[in-house]
């Protein structure tokens, strides 16, 4: 938390070499090893390397496989296509064992070409759900091709959504630069070295839910919403079992009951949606 209160004068005095930061991140692949000012320098260096405006927040932070990294938002690929005059020369699609695959061919102003695929599972999907999945595959393919031809080997936000272990992180940055904190998905928090710490009970208090179980609960509630449940409904379930509406405040002793209840509710939603589609 101390890193978030570094004054502007201290940052100005800090001799941070962007090239050295790039090297450290590329070797370690983990932005959590950098201080808040160093992350800001790195963020700006990545933006400047491809001509993006950092004030538009083209990238966001995620925790993936225990490492803090950046992923590209829609704003990033939109800007890149315009800045580097990236045009789509061809697009093909096909279905492979229930997977809808779109291949996008792109070319930039210098005549360089690249190709990338976007794929989504559409088997058993019907109507609007199937149409949305098809459009998502097309979008994913276009954005991946844009990032590739511009030399950015990072995930796009459409890919992040489909990776269960990818957790958006609330990164603490320096207020001196007016860089907003990045809001985590719902109320999940990343490791305290990088983000605000989870509630830690003092001596004598009942232990709260641990990080691995918290992530399981978050995944279940997200899946419930995908199948039509409202946030209010699963919070009501939490309150009936634990007396709390926040996932972070679930007591460790209630975790088993919560996981069973949410899993049962999710299975019921899946079955109900399946029966409607028949």
In short:
By secondary structure, the chain is an alpha+beta fold. The protein has three domains: 85 residues, no CATH class; 65 residues, no CATH class; 67 residues, no CATH class.
What does the secondary structure layout of this molecule look like, with pairings?
Layout: H1 8-13, H2 18-28, H3 36-50, E1 59-64, E2 67-72, H4 74-83, E3 87-96, E4 99-107, E5 113-121, H5 127-149, E6 155-156, H6 157-160, E7 167-168, H7 211-226, H8 231-242, H9 255-277
Parallel strand pairs: 2-6
Antiparallel strand pairs: 1-2, 1-7, 3-4, 4-5
Helix pairs in contact: 7-9, 8-9
> Total strand count, please?
7
Silhouette = flat
H-E order = HHHEEHEEEHEHEHHH
Q: Percent of residues in beta strands?
A: 15-25%
Strand order of the largest sheet: 6-2-1-7
* Separate helix tally: 9
Number of domains: 3
Q: Indicate the structural class.
A: alpha+beta
- Average residue pLDDT: 76
Verbal overview:
This protein has 278 residues and is of the alpha+beta class. It is 43% helix and 16% strand. It is flat and about 60 Å long. It is built from 9 helices and 7 strands, in the order H-H-H-E-E-H-E-E-E-H-E-H-E-H-H-H. The strands form 2 sheets. Strands 6-2-1-7 form a 4-stranded mixed beta sheet. Residues 1-15 and 173-205 have low confidence and may be disordered. It folds into 3 domains: 2-70 and 162-177, no CATH class; 85-149, no CATH class; 211-277, no CATH class.
């Amino acid at each position: 938390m101390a890193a978030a209160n570094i004054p502007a004068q201290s940052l100005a005095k800090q001799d941070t070499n962007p090239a050295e930061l790039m090297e450290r991140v590329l070797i370690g692949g983990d932005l959590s090893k950098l201080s808040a000012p160093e992350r800001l320098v790195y963020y700006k260096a990545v933006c400047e390397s491809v001509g993006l405006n950092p004030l538009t927040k083209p990238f966001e932070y995620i925790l993936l496989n225990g490492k803090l990294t950046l992923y590209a938002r829609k704003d990033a690929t939109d800007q890149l296509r315009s800045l580097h005059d990236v045009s789509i020369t061809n697009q093909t699609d096909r279905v492979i064992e229930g997977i809808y695959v779109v291949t996008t061919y792109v070319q930039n102003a210098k005549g360089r070409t690249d190709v990338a695929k976007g794929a989504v599972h559409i088997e058993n999907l019907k109507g609007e759900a199937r149409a949305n999945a098809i459009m998502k595959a097309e979008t994913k393919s276009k954005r991946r091709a844009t990032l590739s031809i511009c030399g950015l080997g990072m995930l796009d936000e459409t890919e992040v959504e489909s990776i269960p272990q990818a957790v958006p992180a609330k990164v603490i940055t320096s207020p001196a630069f007016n860089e907003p904190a990045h809001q985590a998905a719902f109320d999940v928090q990343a490791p305290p070295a990088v983000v605000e710490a989870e509630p830690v009970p003092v001596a004598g208090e009942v232990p709260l839910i641990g990080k691995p179980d918290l992530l399981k609960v978050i995944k279940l509630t997200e899946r419930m919403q995908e199948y039509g449940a409202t946030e209010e409904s699963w919070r009501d379930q939490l309150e009936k079992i634990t007396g709390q509406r926040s996932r972070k405040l679930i007591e460790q002793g209630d975790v088993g009951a919560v996981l069973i209840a949410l899993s049962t509710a999710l299975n019921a939603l899946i079955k109900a949606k399946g029966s409607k589609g028949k």
